[in-house]
Write a structure and sequence with these properties.
The protein is α+β, with helices and mostly antiparallel strands. The chain contains 17 helices and twelve strands. The structure holds zinc ion (ZN).
């Protein structure tokens, strides 16, 4: 190589380190790139991908050293104040060295440590300034990548994908740990955001030109976790089965005026909020209420909750969305009609269809009362037996939800009559969280679900402020 090969000495935090100036490294990297191009031209079996790979490799050391230099300089400048409470630190000492994995390789930083008398804790201000305070040793860029990948795919795959795309090596267990740590941090950020939203007394003075409705949907699905593992035998001896399936409560909310259609007629919602939690119905209630407020519930002309018949949903709605109208998911109502049909006609599918079609049409275009009257007439004519029991149960169901079946009015007003939006949300989340062989803990699940919702709600930058990327509409 025809480059200069000078070295110089830099002083960082009192430690003498032998390093080359960045300009020298840059010149050497440029020479390396020229050589890579030469080699690329000679090699008949290489396509552009080979050059891309080699070029990225060729500047890696330059990037690593730039990042290390900047990190150290910023660490040296960090004021000796407590990053949590702002109090002046005492008992300061220099030279606390720690190595971090960045996306360009490992760097070691010398930091100053001090004691905060107010918090009664040792603090390293440089770590807070650099975004290294809550990590097992990874830079914000690596924290970001680990969190995103772990919330999208199993950690074994995530580890391989990360290394393939970036060269960063994080073994699955390490990646998992870091993602959960970031998930914990995300939960703290979410708590703060939710408190702000739920506690805001004044409605933000946003000018709303057209009155809009806020649509809220809820659902729940099962997740398998590992709690009670290792205790299986003792639990069984005590006559108990270990509980491994748990509910994940999910909600979505959007403004009706932000719901449009694709060219193919499929409904799309340009802006909508997601909530998914393992913190029970109470957790969902508070998180979904906060999300709805952030999405404009406070300024909405009205709100509408659409869901299946689950009792907990309507209780939650009565409790936290008192003023909202309620609508039973149309397709669930149809399923209950079909259940009556099956009780009447058994396996005779043709007869069932013939009976069902006009009723479904009436339910959709006329009124639920009309349908219920017909069911009652059928019930009257049935002899006692198992069939009458099944039909009676369904009639009771329709009575219970009678006021939630205003499908005709809903359609006329351009509102959804089904809870398709939440069901597709659940399906997507289940793809990630229900893969075979993944048994997690409640804490771990909650952390990953929290990361997932930050991503879907386009708030990733609140966790990783260096990222400006906004995902395409989902
Ligand atoms: Zn403090």
């Amino acid at each position: 190589m025809g480059c200069m090969n000078t070295t110089c000495t830099e002083s960082t935090a009192g430690v003498k380190v032998k390093t080359e100036p960045l300009a020298v490294l840059a010149a050497r990297a440029a020479c390396g790139l020229e050589e890579a191009i030469e080699g690329f031209l000679r090699a008949s079996d290489e396509n552009l991908g080979h050059l891309e790979q080699e070029a990225a490799q060729g500047v890696m050391e330059l990037l690593r050293r730039s990042v290390a230099k900047g990190a150290q300089a910023k660490a040296d400048k960090a004021p000796p104040d407590c990053p949590v409470c702002g109090h002046k630190l005492s008992r300061l000492s220099d030279g606390h060295s720690r190595t971090f994995q960045t996306r360009f390789g490992q760097i070691t930083i010398q930091r100053t440590r001090g004691y905060c008398q107010r918090c009664r804790k040792w603090r390293v201000p440089a770590d807070a300034v650099l975004g290294l305070a809550e990590t097992a040793g990874y830079s914000p860029a690596v924290q970001d990548m680990a969190s995103l990948l772990a919330s999208k795919m199993p950690v074994g795959e995530a580890s391989a994908v990360l290394e393939h795309l970036t060269g960063v090596k994080l073994p699955p267990a390490t990646l998992d740990r870091e993602a959960r740590r970031q998930g914990q941090r995300a939960r703290a950020v979410r708590r703060k955001l939710d408190e702000q939203a739920n506690g805001a007394t004044a409605v933000p003075a946003e000018l709303v030109l057209e009155p809009y409705q806020m649509i809220i949907q809820m659902d729940a699905w099962n997740i398998r976790e590992r709690d009670g593992w290792g205790k299986t035998q003792s639990l069984r001896r005590a006559g108990q089965e270990p509980e491994r399936w748990h509910w994940v409560y999910t909600g979505t909310c959007f403004r009706l005026d932000q719901r449009g259609q694709t060219a193919g007629g499929r409904p799309v919602i340009s802006e909508r909020g997601f909530v998914a939690t393992r913190e029970g119905i109470d957790g969902l209630r508070e998180q979904l209420h906060a999300e709805a407020l952030r999405r404009g519930l406070g300024q909405a002309a009205g709100a509408l909750v659409i869901a299946d018949g689950a009792v907990w949903i309507w209780r939650l709605a009565d409790d936290r969305f008192k003023d909202a109208r309620q609508r039973l998911d149309f397709y669930h109502a149809v399923q209950h009609l079909a259940a009556v049909g099956r009780a009447l006609f058994g396996e005779d599918k043709a007869k069932l269809k013939e009976w069902l079609r006009p009723l479904v049409r009436q339910l959709q275009n006329q009124s639920a009362i009309k349908v219920i009257h017909q069911l009652e007439e059928i019930l009257k004519g049935l002899p006692e037996g198992t069939t009458v029991e099944a039909v009676r149960k369904e009639v009771a169901y329709f009575h219970e939800h009678q006021d939630r079946m205003d499908y005709r009015k809903g359609r006329r007003q351009g509102e959804p009559i089904g809870s398709g939006a939440i069901e597709s949300t659940c399906r997507q989340a289940q793809c990630r969280f229900k893969r075979p062989g993944q048994y997690w803990s409640r804490e771990g699940d909650e952390s990953l679900l929290c990361l997932e919702t930050f991503w879907r709600n386009h708030r990733w930058h609140l966790l990783f402020p260096h990222t400006t990327f906004k995902p395409a509409r989902n």
